Amino acid sequence: MAAHRNASFWPWIGLAALILLADLFTKALILGYYRLGDSTYVTSFFNVVRVHNSGAAFSFLAGAGGWQRWFFTAIGIGAAIFIVWMLRSHSGQKLFSFALACILGGAIGNVIDRVVHGYVVDWLDFHFSFLSGIFHGGHFPSFNIADVGISIGAMCLILDEILRVRRSR
Length: 169
Description:
169 residues
């Protein structure tokens, strides 16, 4: 049984690595070609930008004075260790493991940013006029590939739990 779990563990680590590599590659492009605050119009609802986020989601605690860098780094490392343990234990559960692998790749990508730069590099800027009552100018807070992985993973965890509850009825 353990050999079967270990064998199916590696594809999930591979998925996490792909998300991590895509995240690091796109951030390297942004750091190489954009200065802080630069923006390129792509469509009527999307720009490529360079933003530095020293906080967490939606810039939570961004102005906290610096301690948050190491706090969020520690949380990310702790989450990564826990996720790897969970993947080893539940690698046969496909949707659950897919979700965890997406979160793992994203978490590691943002941890690397915090350790190397002291902030997370965000570059995806979506804006819609119907969001102007919620976000300044209708611009959803900028994000990156790591955040996409984490968000997809979180949605899949919710879906997995809904399906699990339905199956148990």
